[in-house]
Design goal:
3% helix, Methylamine Dehydrogenase, Chain H, disordered C terminus, single chain, mainly beta, four-stranded antiparallel sheet
């Protein structure tokens, strides 16, 4: 097997990263809002998607990236919590923005539940459970391991 890091740039500008459950994708993030959120294929080292304009440089995490940038259990949806009180759902295979929720408090933590049909969002002083099923593509649109 080829080691994934053999293919990556010598340095990736990032202050944190999150691996998908199957470890075939990695999201890199940086506190500098000029550096885009990036999704990488860890097998080939290929950059799959960048989200600088999609996220409007209104960057994400208050705590660690592991708390506010999460993959759905099947790795097909990325939940991104923003400093400015938004949570976006992104299709990891296409890079499409599926939906953005807006709140009055900063996002502290995100977690997918119930086979990724709901998402729990920890705000500054409250917890909200959102039904996200209406924003998700049909299950048959995703092919598990499509990046392999």
């Amino acid at each position: 097997m080829i080691h994934p890091m053999d293919h990556f740039p010598v340095t990736i500008r990032a202050t944190d990263m999150v691996l998908s459950h199957d470890e075939y994708m990695m999201v890199t993030v940086d506190n500098d809002t000029r550096v885009p959120v990036q999704i990488w294929d860890t097998t080939s080292g290929t950059l799959l998607h960048e989200f600088n304009n999609l996220l409007n440089n209104n960057l994400y995490y208050m705590n660690s990236a592991q708390d506010t940038i999460v993959f759905s259990p099947d790795d097909t949806i990325l939940g991104v919590g923003y400093r400015m009180s938004n949570v976006s759902l992104i299709n990891t295979l296409t890079g499409e923005l599926l939906h953005t929720f807006t709140y009055n408090d900063p996002i502290r933590k995100i977690h997918f539940i119930h086979e990724y049909t709901k998402i729990i969002i920890k705000l500054g002083c409250s917890i909200i459970i959102e039904d996200i099923s209406e924003f998700l593509p049909a299950k048959d649109e995703f092919v598990k391991g499509a990046l392999n």
